[in-house]
Each structure stands twice: as C-alpha cells, then as structure tokens.
C-alpha cells in the first residue's frame, strides 16, 4: 500500500518553524516509505482564510524542498462534506441541538456541582418533534452533534469506551469516548467545524497516516469514531510534540513569529530551518544536515520526545553558519554567479570567505572588498599609517600563494619589531577596511600584488 500523508494548515497566516516541523515530519515520512504528500488547505473558515497565505505557504514548502503530489482546498470540496452529513443524519448519528452557549455553561456548572463529568448530557436527544417545531418557530437554528458510540443501548447512560491506536510517534494510546462531549460538527449558520471536513477528506483522499501536532491527540478518539461511522477504517496516526519558545510560549501563525518567509528573506538556508525543525525535541542531536535525503535517513518519528520542545531562535543562525562553512563551490556556484561572483577566481574566493559568512549573499560584500577595495574607511592612527606604508615596501614578488602572507609578515616583523595584534590589525584594516574577516593568508593571493599595493594608505 502506498503511503499517503497530508499537510493541512489553515491559510490564516504565514507558517512558522513549528508548522514546518509538521510539514517536514509528513514529507520525511513519505520519503522514507516511498509515499506521497498531499497539500491540503483547511480553508472552510472563509472569513479568516486567504489565498495569499495559501500561496505564501506553497512558496515556503517549495523552498524547504517539500514536493506535494497534489494541492487541494477544502473550500472547493463542500459537496463531499454535505454527503457525509447526509450519511450521518440518515444513520441517526448527527442530531440537532438548540442550546445557547449560556445554557450549556449553566448545565456544565450543575454537572460539576453534582460531581458528574462536565460533558454534554445529550439533552437535545430528548426533544420531541413538537418541541423542535416550537424552537424552529422562534427562529432558533440548530447546531449538529455527532453521537459518539460510548453506550450500549441508552445514550443517556454512557460507559467507558476505549479507543486505542498505535501512534507512530507516541506509541500505544488510549482515549475514553465516555469522557468527552459529542462533538459539534456543524454550526448554527451551517458552517463546518474542523472535524468533519478533515475526516471526510482523509477518507476521500485515501490518507494512510495522519501526522500532526500533539494538540490533536484528544480529537483523535472522536475522529476514529467518525471514520467508522462514515464506513471507513481509520488510518494510522502520529502526534509530534510542539515547539515552544525558550519561555515556553507556543508559536502562532498570527503573530508572524519566526515565519518561514521571514527566515528565507533574511538569507537563511532551507536545510538550516529543516535541520532544526526536525531534529529538535528528538533523541538525535541538533546538527546541520546538508540534504533532505540525509535528514530522512536520520528521521525516526518514534525517537521524538513527548514533552514540548523548547528552542532558541538563535540556533537557526548557528546551524546556518555551520552549513555555509562546509558548502562546496559546486553547491553554490550558480547562486554566486547570480551575485556577480564568477570567473577564474570565484572558487578560491568562495573557499577563502565561506567560513566568515552569516549568509551566502554576504559573499557579495567580500567580493567587492577583494575586487574594489575596502568599503568602510579604515581607522588607522598616524603611526599605524606609517607602519603600513613601510610594510607595503616589503611585499614579496609574485607568484603569490597561501604562504605569501607568512613570508611578508615575517619580513615586516623583522623590520618593525612589531608582533601579534599590533602587526596584523593595521594590515587587516588597510587591506579590508574591517577588523575581522577571512584569513589574510587566503585573501592575499586573491588581491594580487597590484591589488594589494592599491591599498597602501
Ligand atoms: N487544519 C488543522 C490544523 O492546522 C489540521 C489538523 C490535522 O492535521 O488534522 O490544526
């Protein structure tokens, strides 16, 4: 059987690194099992869902290297949900309720005071046809609840009804259907809550594994019952832990915190985001992984811890630098060419500067410094200026290589008596305009003798 998974965000904002975790868990699971991923937008809430967010999510997924085999929108699939509703109604498993939120709250308090579980008592099932007509005549509209299979003959006497599943992330799970209220599937205004469209689609799309955040664990019991009520075998489930900030706060699409778009725009590499999003909160150490294939090889859903994974946003930057530092020229050649970095010196240049870059795009700054000279005014004292000018008289003849720096600075040391920082810093400032950067031994052959002399203060 081919594995079919889905990533099902509501397009109500930019996805963040926590959503990317869900998308990547699904994608890596599909990769490992030779399956497919369906990109489904849960956009039944038309007021909050926006096409521009769906488009941004598709761009983000493509950038991350996730390749859905199909893209679909719940807003185009209402006929499927309407058919599911008809099926449930005709089986007597979806019943109309007329309580207001206040009435429900009052009843909840009464149940609590009687030490009963604060679940819905199915009072609407007792309404006679006449009572229903009277309520409708008042202009009341019903919301519709799914009758959970948690009783033998009498729906008013529910008894412990365990639903089990072997979670691909958390291992064996049990939920008691008697501990929950019959879920509302359709609101008074006829709009759908998340549960029914999700299950109806998972059936219709042939989803074999539902992999999502562990905030959905308790939904799963009722959803398994709903799969069965609709005549389908439930798929397998996997619930991964959620990411929180260091202070334990959840991430939200609405606040735009650590959005994938934002990380992309700030020059972060997709595999830095993917490495962090997947490996954090697992028994694997968080390391920069260069390709999705390698990440898939390390990915083991069962190695995910059960508690929330706290993460430090600064880690994205650390992983990014580490990835760039080990990138070969072949890997970045095309991107460097787009930045204008090409020609016979490009490879040597890349190997010289990659260890000092925050982003690949930063290479352009160093390319300019190497080719055109410092772009910031070097702050040399009068004395250092004289020292550097004299040092330039000692530049060895070409050809130059990595050893030239040593030969030159040995000669400068012998003549000036300077050493350490007092020797190197003025030379670095004169050559690059900056107090730190790539090894001067690597830069010098790129500057060449003429290029170096052009920087004499
Ligand atoms: N739209 C739901 C969410 O974003 C999907 C949950 C699921 O994967 O079933 O939470």
Automatic annotation (TrEMBL):
Domain spans labelled Glutamyl/glutaminyl-tRNA synthetase class Ib catalytic: 5-313
Keywords on record: Aminoacyl-tRNA synthetase, ATP-binding, Cytoplasm, Ligase, Nucleotide-binding, Protein biosynthesis
EC number(s) given by UniProt: 6.1.1.17
Domain Aminoacyl-tRNA synthetase class I anticodon-binding: 352-455
Stretch forming the signal peptide: none
Keyword Endoplasmic reticulum included in the entry's annotation: no
Catalyzed chemical reaction(s): tRNA(Glu) + L-glutamate + ATP = L-glutamyl-tRNA(Glu) + AMP + diphosphate
Domain of life assignment: Bacteria
Primary localization class, coarse: cytoplasm
Keyword presence, ATP-binding: yes
GO biological process: glutamyl-tRNA aminoacylation
Protein family according to the UniProt entry: Belongs to the class-I aminoacyl-tRNA synthetase family. Glutamate--tRNA ligase type 1 subfamily.
Function (record text): Catalyzes the attachment of glutamate to tRNA(Glu) in a two-step reaction: glutamate is first activated by ATP to form Glu-AMP and then transferred to the acceptor end of tRNA(Glu).
Protein name per Swiss-Prot or TrEMBL: Glutamate--tRNA ligase
Organism: Tianweitania populi
């Amino acid at each position: 059987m081919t594995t079919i998974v889905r990533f099902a965000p509501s397009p109500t904002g930019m996805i963040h690194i926590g959503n990317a975790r869900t998308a990547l868990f699904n994608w890596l699971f599909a990769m490992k099992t030779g399956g497919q991923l369906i990109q489904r937008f849960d956009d039944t809430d038309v007021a909050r869902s926006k096409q521009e967010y769906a488009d941004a999510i598709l761009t983000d997924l493509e950038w991350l290297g996730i390749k859905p085999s199909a893209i679909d929108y719940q807003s185009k699939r209402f006929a499927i949900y309407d058919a599911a509703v008809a099926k449930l109604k005709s089986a007597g498993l979806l019943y109309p309720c007329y309580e207001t939120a206040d009435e429900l709250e009052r009843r909840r308090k009464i149940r609590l005071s009687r030490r009963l579980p604060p679940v819905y008592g199915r009072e609407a099932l007792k309404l006679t046809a006449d009572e229903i007509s009277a309520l409708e005549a008042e202009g009341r509209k019903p919301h519709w609840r799914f009758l959970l299979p948690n009783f033998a003959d009498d729906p008013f006497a529910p008894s412990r009804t365990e639903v089990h599943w072997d979670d691909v992330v958390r291992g064996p799970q049990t939920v008691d259907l008697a501990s929950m209220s019959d879920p509302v599937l359709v609101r008074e205004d006829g709009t759908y809550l998340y549960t029914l469209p999700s299950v109806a689609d998972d059936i219709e799309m042939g989803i074999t594994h539902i992999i999502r955040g562990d905030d959905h664990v308790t939904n799963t019991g009722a959803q398994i019952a709903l799969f069965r009520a609709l005549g389908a075998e439930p798929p397998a489930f996997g619930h991964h832990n959620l990411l929180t900030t260091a202070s334990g706060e959840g991430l939200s699409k609405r606040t735009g915190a650590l959005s994938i778009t934002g990380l992309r725009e700030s020059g972060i590499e997709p595999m830095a985001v993917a490495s962090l999003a997947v490996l954090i909160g697992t028994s694997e150490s968080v390391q920069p992984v260069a390709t999705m294939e390698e990440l898939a090889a390390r990915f083991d859903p069962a190695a995910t811890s059960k508690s929330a994974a706290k993460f430090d946003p600064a880690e994205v930057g650390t992983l990014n630098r580490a990835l760039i530092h080990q990138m070969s020229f072949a890997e970045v050649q095309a991107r460097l060419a787009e930045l204008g970095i090409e020609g016979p010196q490009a490879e040597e240049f890349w190997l010289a500067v990659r260890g000092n870059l925050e982003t690949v795009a930063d290479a352009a700054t160093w390319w300019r410094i190497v080719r055109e000279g410092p772009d910031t005014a070097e702050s040399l004292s009068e004395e250092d200026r004289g020292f550097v000018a004299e040092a330039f008289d000692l530049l060895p003849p070409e050809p130059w290589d990595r050893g030239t720096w040593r030969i030159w600075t040995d000669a400068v040391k012998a003549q000036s008596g300077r050493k350490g920082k007092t020797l190197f810093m003025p030379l670095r400032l004169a050559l690059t305009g900056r107090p730190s950067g790539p090894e001067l031994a690597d830069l010098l052959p790129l500057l060449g003798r003429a290029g170096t002399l052009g920087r004499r203060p």
